[in-house]
Amino acid sequence: MRNTGIIHLVGAGPGDPDLLTLRAARLIAAADVIVHDGLVSDDILDFAHRDATLISVAKRRSHHSMAQDEINALLVREARAGRMVVRLKGGDPLVFGRGGEEAEAARAAGVAVEIVPGISAANGAAAAAQIALTHRDASSAVSFVAGQCKGLAEQDWAGLAGKGRTLVIYMGVKTAPQIAEKLMADGLAPDMPIAVIENATRSAMRVLRGPLAALPDLVERERVVSPALIVIGEVTAREDATLAQLAQETAR
Ligand code: SAH
Question: Which residues pair with 33 in a beta bridge?
Fold first, then answer.
């Protein structure tokens, strides 16, 4: 496990430490240096060796505490100095995690990289909220998109959401009104069921449901904060449907 001079890009999963892979837990415990972002919870950082150096490069939507180039340079410098470097990211490193950019930078500098997958927020949230991302009766395709402001209008989501499909939107809390508008302009029904899953797999998790047209109000009224995912599709209403059916049957 002591593998120095290499950068380990490690997925930390959606928050619950029980959802770390064994390999992630072992690497975190063995690392000399852990460079982590804001999504990695303290419960997970507690696995670090007490002599390890923890460096936060937390990114917030409005301000970046460390530019990507600086992060790349930091990782390369530490690995070259012979330290065992773990770059720890929320979810999976290769899903909206800039893991690709960091791996490219390491390769360009001639430093070896290992990538350890993590449970992405979509998978963690779906399991925790008991929403099937695909279902033989309701959805045969699932897509992951980023909903942050930059370029949202230019992104082509046509065909990704609608009947028989599930769309999972990362980083979409701030832009919920534009997202709802965009999807309805693409032809989605205003009553298409949606769910917002905030703090998935963590103790503060909330699952909110409603029709697409009410998404902006839901986010505002319930003061939804990041990290949260928006899931669009009939699969988000199945649990409600089952519960309603059960209630009816019990009442009979
Ligand atoms: N690499 C990460 C995604 C990073 S982008 C992954 O694979 O999950 C950051 C976005 O991920 C957040 O804005 C939010 O939309 C989502 N996210 C991460 N953790 C989450 C959680 N515990 N609950 C809900 N959404 C989460």
Answer: 53, 85
117 lines ligand 1 (CB under 6 A): no
Domain ranges of the chain: 6-119, 122-240
Assess whether 150 carries a catalytic annotation: no
The answer to whether the 6-119 and 122-240 domains have the same CATH topology is no
Would you state the CATH architecture of domain 122-240? 2-Layer Sandwich (3.30)
Question: Could you write out the DSSP letters of every residue in 103-172?
Answer: HHHHHHTT-EEEEE----HHHHHHHHHT--SSBTTTEEEEEEEE--STTGGG---TTTSSTEEEEEEES-
Say whether 250 sits in a helix, a strand or coil: helix
Q: Which atom of ligand 1 is nearest to the CA of 148?
A: 13
Q: Are 109 and 76 in contact (CB under 8 A)?
A: yes
Residues of the chain with pLDDT under 50: none
Tell me the per-residue pLDDT of 96-151, one tens digit each, with 9 for 90 and over: 999 999 999 999 999 999 999 999 999 999 999 999 999 999 999 999 999 986 67
Give the Cα separation of 36 and 169 in Å (integer).
Answer: 23
- Which of 34, 59, 58 has its CA nearest to residue 46? 34
Active-site residue (options: 18, 42, 43, 59): 59
Annotation marks residue 59 as catalytic: yes
* 202 CA to centre of ligand 1 in angstroms: 12
- Percentage above 90 pLDDT, the chain: 83
Would you state the CATH architecture of domain 6-119?
Answer: 3-Layer(aba) Sandwich (3.40)
Q: Which atom of ligand 1 is nearest to the CA of 92?
A: 7
